[in-house]
Every structure is written in structure tokens, then in C-alpha cells.
UniProtKB/TrEMBL annotation, chain A:
GO terms for biological process: sulfate transmembrane transport. GO terms for molecular function: molecular carrier activity; sulfur compound binding. The keyword Transport applies. It comes from Thauera propionica. It comes from the Bacteria. This is ABC transporter permease. Its main location: periplasm. Belongs to the prokaryotic sulfate-binding protein family. Residues 1-29 form the signal peptide. Pfam families: SBP_bac_11 (PF13531). It is found in: Periplasm. Keywords: Periplasm, Signal, Transport.
């Protein structure tokens, strides 16, 4: 068969991508996992992934490469809903994974029961980051609503992390003597009046507090507060742990629909289970998450986490109920600002 | 003679016949135009409307008239119009200086004007916030005067002025370059004062271009998210822009709610741009520069 020059170049045009795809295809014969996570876990998984790859190789002889993707938890969940092929998701709150389950059907709705401790191999809590020397004398939630105190927290409607902040404050008010829904709403309303800036995400709030010098207290996840102090020097900020806080559970799960299709179910499952192993627990504690099995972690790391009276999201009726009551349109948060 | 006239072969005047064109390729270019426009603009926009159509009219109305959303329209459209107006005044001055005068560093300044185009908007937002926060270079002087820029609606205006500037300068500049100084000399020799020369000679010529620049700066400002979000403060009812409301809906996995607000933004922006275009055509016609 003879081709005219034009035909030939057309043929080349059609074949080139196909060939290229073939090469890439053969290069990908090795197993890859995509872990879609949220922002502050970057360093943790950077260290955990090679450890798991080594473990997997020694167990099965197979090579596995783990790719990470980080971003705001809500954005990451939406990316998965819109078709990003994540084998596992490790996000900031169960509500985001619920959304993936509900919108795509790629995760069964009872996913949170599949792994121990509500599928959260590590937890955290909400603490206060204050300026060095704690000039406003902040010790507990009640101090945040004193005159002249400015509080920085992200917008709970756009930030998953900020929903924990808000619910921790709510839980504190509920636990006070005579506390009920009304007093809790009154307290949170008071608290939000002390918030001059509502950034759209946790990183934005940290930036506002640390770089712009706005506010006296930053409400933050404990692990992120530690990261901030690490990055910026302990001579500028200190952590204050309130009397009551909330147990923040960033859960993990396999995206069955994707893993089945890509044939990665086994390795994905093993990857998440390895987070509960001594190696995973040790790394979690090293990266400032509270390990669910502290006996496996370095005692020096565990000593950094003071004892706090923790309420859980179940105490507040679970994520679906909390979302509906507080953060949905027309919910308590909207009512507070609607005046 | 008179009877012969009707039998003369007349030129075809039927409207069905295609008009004669000197250059070929009309159908091809029209096809490309429509195809390209559909692919790049119309299909994505249609998707927005289609997704919105999943809502009933009552639901749609509830979403787009919620108090927080209405407050955000006022802020977004109000500040965008104000920012475009400020840019129209100062952009015209800047363009005038760049065209009419030569001074050292002129090339550099000319290049600087385009910077807001090129800078990632988030970078612009972060630098402006750093500048205007109470510990920033400018903020530390403004704050004692009781002027708060960062984390207030005023901060939104500052960011929108920043990103809109090149649009006005770059649309007005070529018109000013084509403007003959003879026109001004003639006006002066006919006894016009400087203000009269500007008002009756220069302004009518640059006005259509100025309006275009205004419209572009406005359109850009309405849709701006990255630079504004860092400096706005984002307090509900006070300093939330409409694009943030859309993001808020998306964070709640409320895709239809997000597209509903987007639809309202599109319609409002389109209506305003139509009005500006109409105004432009009208002034062009009035001053006899119908193009």
C-alpha cells in the first residue's frame, strides 16, 4: 500500500498519540495508588508512603507507587465526585466522604464502620494558638468572648476544618452548667461577633493570624497549630488547650468503585490498614496527629498531647444532623448572621 | 422611449439572492465563528443553565434571593462598577501621559501597566492584603487615621481597581495615539479654552473606547475571585462577594444552587454589558463616528 505524503503525515498524526499511550500504558504495569487527601497531611503521607511501599514489597514482592493529591477537603471530595480516580480518600471529615458515597455510589454508605475507630487511624482536636506570652490571658472558651478579644477562624460553610472549630465551641457551651441549645447558640453568636475575618480555608486563617497579625486567638486543629509553631518559631506563638474540645476524626476509606475498576482493592485496603500498624501510628504521632494506639508511638511524641475532655461528633448527633442543623442554608450559622 | 423603460433588464433586487462579495470564504468563516463560539462559550454557558433548570422556579427564587446572596450582589456589582469608574478616570490619565509625554522610564511604566493581567490573582490578593493589613506598609499609616482597607468592603474595591486598570489603559491608548495634535491646535486657534478642548474635541473621540475599557474592567471585576478573597474579610452580609457565595454552595455539594447564582450573575452582567454597548453605539453615532 502506498501513501501520498499528506496521507502519511495524517497517519503519523493519528498513530503518534496511540503509540505514546502504549508506552505510558506499559510503564504503568506497575501498581499505582492515588491517595486523595486534604492539606495538612502532606508531610505525613510523604513519609508514610515509602514505608508502605517497602512493607508491600516485602509482603507480596510487588512494587507499588503512591501518588498524593492535597487541597481543601471539600474541593478534593468534589474532584473525586467529578471523576478523579482516587483509590483511597483520606479527608478532614466524614461528611465529605459521605458526599462522595451519596453522589457517586462508589463507596458504600456504611463505609465508616469498615475500619476501626470510625475509620480514623489518627485524630486531632481543636486548640487555641495565641501570641507569645498570651497577652490577653486566654485559658478557655469563655475568654474568647471577653471585650477586646479578636478570634480568627475560617468560614464553616467553606471550610471543613472550621466546622470542627464551630462545633467545639458549641459543645463547650452545651457542657456548661445549665447549658442547652439556646445557651449554646447564644455563646456561638457571641463568639462569631469577635471574628473580624472569615477566611475561606484553614490555611487562609493561619496566614491572616500569623502573617497579617490580625486577631488574638487562632482556632486551629492541634496538628496544624504544631506545624505553625514549627515553621514560625516557638518564640512567637504558643498553644493553649481549652478545658473541653471536640474529637476531630479525619477518616480514611477505599473508593471501591475506582479500586475495583483498577484492580487495586487489595493494596488499597492494605495501605489503609497499615496506617493502624505500629509504623503508621508512630508516623502519625510524629506529624502531630493523636494516634489511636498511642502505645505504638514514640512516648516523647505522645507527651506533646495534653489530656482534654473531648466531646465527639456523635454527641452532637453525627455529621449529617450537624450539617443540616448548623451549616446548611438557613441553618444556625446563617441565622446568626441574618440578624 | 417611456414604454421601453419597463423592458430594460433590471438588476436583480430580490432579497433571496446572496449579496455579491469581493472576498471569498464568507460561509467558511461564519461556520468557524459559530462553531468556535459554541465550543468555547455557548456550550459551557448552556451547561450552567441546564444544571440550574433542575430547580423549580420557587426553589430557584429562594436560592437567588436569600439575604446573604442579595447582599453579595450589591457588594460585587456595586464595587465592580465603582472600580471600573475609578479606572476609567485614572486609566485615561495614565494613557494620556504615556501617549503624549516622553519621560525617562516610560517604556518600563508602559510595561508595568500590563502586570495585573499577568500576575496570578491570588498573588495580587496576598500582596495587597500584606500591604493594607494593619501591620503592612500602607496599613500601618492608614489604620491610625481610622481607615481600614484590608478585611473591609474597601479592600474589595482596592483589589478590583488593581486588576481592572490595564483594560482601560490598553483600550484608550491606541485611540489617543491616532489623535492628531492638529485638532487641539485648531481648537485653540479658534479660541477654545483647555477644558473646552478636552470636553468638546478630545473626549467625544475617546469616549467609545473609554466605555469599552470601562465595560471590560467591570466584567473582569464582577467575576474576580482570587485576588478579592484574601482581602475581603468574607463576613456574611458585609464583605462576601457573589463568586464566594457560589464557592460556598459548591462546598456544600449544592451544584444546582451554585449554578443558580451563576445564572443570575450571568444575566445581570450580560444586561449591564448590553447597556454599555448600546451606550457606546449611541455616542459613536451621535458624534458621527459610526463604525
Amino acid at each position: 500500500m502506498k501513501f501520498s505524503p499528506i496521507r502519511r503525515s495524517l497517519l503519523a498524526l493519528v498513530l503518534a498519540p496511540a503509540l505514546a499511550a502504549g508506552f505510558v500504558g506499559s510503564a504503568q504495569a506497575q501498581t499505582t495508588l492515588l491517595n486523595v487527601s486534604y492539606d495538612p497531611t502532606r508531610e505525613l503521607y510523604q513519609e508514610f508512603n515509602p514505608q508502605f511501599a517497602k512493607h508491600w514489597k516485602s509482603q507480596t514482592g510487588e512494587d507499588v507507587t503512591i501518588k498524593q493529591s492535597h487541597g481543601g477537603a471539600g474541593k478534593q471530595a468534589r474532584a473525586v465526585i467529578d471523576g478523579l480516580e482516587a483509590d483511597v480518600v483520606t479527608l478532614a471529615l466524614a461528611y465529605d466522604i459521605d458526599a462522595i458515597a451519596e453522589k457517586t455510589g462508589k463507596i458504600p454508605t456504611d463505609w465508616q464502620k469498615r475500619l476501626a475507630h470510625n475509620s480514623s487511624p489518627y485524630t486531632s482536636t481543636i486548640v487555641f494558638l495565641v501570641r507569645k506570652g498570651n497577652p490577653k490571658g486566654i485559658k478557655d472558651w469563655g475568654d474568647l468572648v471577653k471585650p477586646g478579644v479578636e478570634v480568627i477562624t475560617p468560614n464553616p460553610k467553606t471550610s471543613g476544618g472550621a466546622r470542627w472549630n464551630y462545633l467545639a465551641a458549641w459543645g463547650y457551651a452545651l457542657k456548661q452548667p445549665g447549658g442547652n441549645e439556646q445557651t449554646a447558640q447564644a455563646f456561638v453568636t457571641q463568639l462569631l461577633k469577635h471574628v473580624p475575618v472569615l477566611d475561606s480555608g484553614a490555611r487562609g486563617s493561619t496566614n491572616t493570624f500569623v502573617q497579617r497579625g490580625i486577631g488574638d486567638v487562632l482556632l486551629a486543629w492541634e496538628n496544624e497549630a504544631f506545624l505553625s509553631i514549627n515553621e514560625l518559631g516557638p518564640d512567637k506563638f504558643e498553644i493553649v488547650v481549652p478545658s473541653i474540645s471536640i474529637l476531630a476524626e479525619p477518616p480514611v476509606t477505599v473508593v471501591d468503585g475506582v479500586a475495583k475498576k483498577r484492580g487495586t482493592e487489595k493494596v488499597a485496603q492494605a495501605y489503609l490498614e497499615y496506617l493502624y500498624s505500629p509504623v503508621g501510628q508512630k508516623l502519625a504521632a510524629k506529624h502531630y496527629y493523636r494516634p489511636v494506639k498511642p502505645e505504638h508511638a514514640d512516648p516523647a511524641d505522645v507527651a506533646r498531647f495534653p489530656k482534654v475532655d473531648l466531646i465527639t461528633i456523635e454527641d452532637l448527633g453525627g455529621w449529617q444532623a450537624a450539617q443540616k442543623e448548623h451549616f446548611a442554608d438557613g441553618g444556625v450559622f446563617d441565622q446568626i448572621y441574618a440578624r | 422611449m417611456a414604454t421601453a423603460a419597463p423592458s430594460l433588464p433590471l438588476r436583480p433586487t430580490s432579497s433571496a439572492a446572496p449579496p455579491f462579495r469581493v472576498l471569498p470564504g464568507f460561509n467558511l468563516t461564519l461556520g468557524y465563528t459559530l462553531g468556535y463560539l459554541s465550543l468555547i462559550v455557548l456550550i459551557p454557558l448552556a451547561a450552567v443553565f441546564l444544571k440550574t433548570a433542575e430547580l423549580t422556579l420557587a426553589e430557584f427564587w429562594n436560592v437567588v434571593t436569600a439575604p446573604r446572596v442579595v447582599a453579595s450582589y450589591k457588594l460585587s456589582f456595586g464595587m465592580s462598577l465603582l472600580a471600573a469608574a475609578i479606572n476609567a478616570v485614572f486609566g485615561l490619565m495614565l494613557a494620556w501621559a504615556l501617549v503624549r509625554y516622553s519621560f525617562p522610564g516610560k517604556k518600563l511604566i508602559d510595561a508595568l501597566v500590563d502586570l495585573p493581567f499577568a500576575l496570578p490573582t491570588a498573588v495580587a490578593g496576598i500582596s495587597l492584603t500584606a500591604l493594607y493589613a494593619k501591620n503592612g506598609w500602607l496599613g500601618q499609616f492608614l489604620e491610625p487615621l481610622g481607615i481600614q482597607v484590608a478585611f473591609k468592603p474597601l479592600g474589595v474595591l482596592v483589589a478590583l481597581v488593581f486588576i481592572g486598570l490595564p483594560f482601560v489603559v490598553r483600550t484608550v491608548q491606541p485611540i489617543l495615539e491616532d489623535l492628531d495634535t492638529e485638532l487641539e491646535e485648531a481648537a485653540t486657534s479658534l479660541g477654545a479654552q483647555r477644558w473646552q478642548t478636552f470636553r468638546h474635541v478630545i473626549l467625544p473621540i475617546v469616549f467609545p473606547a473609554l466605555l469599552t475599557g470601562f465595560a471590560l474592567a467591570f466584567a473582569r471585576a464582577v467575576g474576580e475571585y482570587g485576588s478579592v478573597i484574601f482581602i475581603a474579610g468574607n463576613i456574611p452580609m458585609v464583605s462576601e462577594i457573589t463568586p464566594l457565595m457560589i464557592i460556598t454552595k459548591l462546598e456544600q455539594y449544592d451544584y444546582t444552587g451554585a449554578t443558580a447564582i451563576a445564572t443570575v450573575m450571568l444575566i445581570l452582567s450580560f444586561a449591564l454589558l448590553l447597556i454599555i454597548n448600546g451606550l457606546q453605539a449611541w455616542t459613536a453615532k451621535r458624534t458621527g463616528r459610526d463604525r
